[in-house]
Amino acid sequence: MKEALHLIARKVREAERAIPDHTDKGEELGMGADGSPTLFVDKLAEDIIVRFVEERDLPFNILSEEIGFVDRGKKKTLVVDPIDGTYNAAMGVPFYSVSLAVATHSLRDAEMALVQNLVTGDTYFAEKGKGATLNGTRIHVRKYLPPSSTFLCYMGKFATSDTLELMRKARRARSLGCASLEMCLVAQGKADAYYLNCEVLERAIRVVDIAASSLILWEAGGEIVDMNDRPLDMRLDLEDRRNYLAYGDEAVKGVFF
Question: By CB atoms within 10 Å of each CB, which of 1, 53, 228, 249 scores lowest?
Answer without folding.
Answer: 228
